[in-house]
Structure formats: structure tokens, C-alpha cells
Amino acid sequence: MNLQQIQTQLGCEVLAGGSLQGANIEHVCACDMMSDVLVVEKDNLLLVTSLTTEQVVRTADIVGAHGVLITNGKQPLEKAVQLAKQLNIPLLRTRLSTFEACVQIGKLLNL
Amino acid sequence: MTNFSLDSSPSVVLELTLRLKIRDVMTTQLITAEKKDSLRHIQQLMKVNRITGVPIVEGKRLVGLISVDDIIQALDGGFIEEACEGRMSRQLIVLEDDMPLSLGISYFEKYHFGRFPVLNKDSELVGIVSSRDILTGLLVEMNKEMEQLEEKLSPQKEVGTTIYSREFSLHKFDFEHAGTASGTIKMELKEKGLDPKTLRRVAVASYEMEMNLIVHSLGGTLKVTHMPRQTVLEARDVGPGIEDLEKALTEGWSTANDWIRSLGFGAGMGLPNIKRVSDDFHIESEVGKGTLVRSVIRHPELGGEV
Fold it and tell me: Read out DSSP for B204-232?
């Protein structure tokens, strides 16, 4: 599964980032505690969160996540968007709640 | 009081005491009082800071000293509420900051005081030195000597060759720049060709250290030293120190407030996370002084399991 499929399925708005098709996603970490994200040792990761600070993008970069999905229709801070552009990390936004977004992504992953 | 004797010390220690200066071991975070302050106030200072002597100053000039003995006498004699000016010791034995440590040790032997104020060339009070400071200073220095010796003796000499080293200053609650140090470290070590898995461990440790410094400390430094077989990260701060290290190392235990949690931090995973990704993990902390966290991450692809 790639980010393009997620974007289509969830009707996400793309706020920053490079190729969505090239961003292969196999694992999802849905979390609002960045330290808990840093524990995750998975490749091809998508970070799903309702936090909007630039630390979200920073954390995604540190663990090498392939994208960040902001839930609850929240608008990330401008600095977060800028950092995502700078680090070339796709930053998506959905109106769905974290749970609803995860359910949809779970379907795409045939879970 | 600890007794030192230089006569019976091994030559390595003797050499160290000659090479080190008083300023290398002295405490520079001074708890002082003024002449008008009451002895009661000074007693409180001693109690809160767990110290046994308080220099009395006028600006940067040392004018006297109140020791715990003076406080006991004041309590005994019923003049604890008096200003310290009339009761302080004025005939003070002081050390200068560029004197060799050996001289400081000889002062402890000669005068039997628990501490000595330290002045600089301009006769300004710049520190205080206790026997404990001297012991700590010597141990730290001996540790360094041992490490150097081990490096020399090790057949894999290049372990000690630094490829890249950098230090970042971090400030309390500076969320605006939070993560830039780790971001830079990650980027630059990637350029040095560190493999992705090891790079991720280094990045996680440095990020947690950086956030700890910003969220919990009064400010400090994050230092990265990249060598062929290992990367060493060191976070050093100037306080407030950790009261219960065991708790701080427990997953989920946190002292962070709601505001910090709203930013996504304070999950109580910081130190445990650093420990988890480290091959060697070291922490030392003293309340009122500061904390040092060191993480060593070896590079397995280069045969780093030394």
C-alpha cells in the first residue's frame, strides 16, 4: 500500500511532501505521544496523530517514517508544514478522527 | 572529614594533583549571603542546599564566612536571629583558582577546615572547594586517564579516532528550536555513511536527550562524537538534577506537566528509550547540580562489538 491509496480512500488534503505513490506503507503508528513513537522499530511507517506541532514532523524524520497523517481536521502549524517540505516528508490531513482513519487504513491493509 | 595524604599517594595521583588547578575541581555555583542577612537565614540556606559553609559577600568580594559551627554556637547562645556580620569569621584562609590542586590538598591537611573559598586574580570570589570536590575531581580525571590508557592498549586503535564531533547548546523551554540539534546530527551522520538502523538509534537517543534538556533541565549541552566503531552522545545540564534515578528510568514515569504533554512529550519514555537504543548507557545526577547522560551506540556493520 502506498500513501496515494490512503489519500484517495480517506479523502486527505496534501499539505506537504513528495511522491505519495513512492511512499510505501506497511505499518501505522497512531499516537499523540512522540516518545511512544520513538519506541516503534518498524520500516515503511505512517504516523497518524492529532498533534499539530513541528515536533510531529521532527519525530517522523527521526524514526524514518514515510508520512504523517493529521486527524480530526486539524490544521498543522505553519512551521510543521515548512519542516515537512524541507525534510521532504509527506504531510496529509483528514477530517476523520484518529480511530476512523485507522479503521480505513486497516481496511486498505486487509487487516 | 576526609584526610588526604600526598606522601602515600601513587605517583599517577601525585602527578594529577600537580597538573590540575583548583578551578578544575571547585564548585562554581555558589550559595552566598550578605552581611545584613541573619544567621537564621544562613542556617536555612545550609539546610536547603545541604552545605556546611556559606561565604558572606559584598558584590563579588568575599568579606567573611559562616560555618555550621558558627550556626551551632548561635543556636546555643541564642543569637541566631542576629545579622551575620558580627559573628562571621573574617580571618579567612582562601585559595586562588590557578593554584595547583596539590596546594589545596595541603591546606586541608594543615588547617582542618571543611572548605575553602576560591578567589581569582582580581580577588573576586569565584568558587568554593570542599574535600568532596577534590575527591570527585580526582576521580573524574583518573577515569579520563584510564580511558586514554585503555585506548592506547586496545589493538583497535581507531576506536578513539574522532571522525566528527559537535556540541549544541540547549535552553529551557526553547520549543522553537527543539529537534534541530538531533535533525542536524542525523543529517550529518547520514552523510558520513552510517547505516540506517544505527543512524535511527543515534537519532532516537539524541532526540530524547535534546527534548529532556529542553523540557526538564535548566539548560545544557548535547555533544555527539562520531568514531569509526561507535557514536557517543552526551547530554550535560546545569540542573536541577534528578531526585530519584530509579523512577526516572521507569517507563511511563514522568514529571512533565499538562502543557508539555499537550506538545506530545512527557510520556515517561525519554530515559528508558535512550537506554533501550544504547549499547552502553550511563547516567549520573545530583540535585542542585545537574545531570549527565551518556549513550554509546556501536556500529555493528563495522565490527563495532568490541
Answer: HHHHHHHHHHHHHSS-EEEEEEE-SSEEE
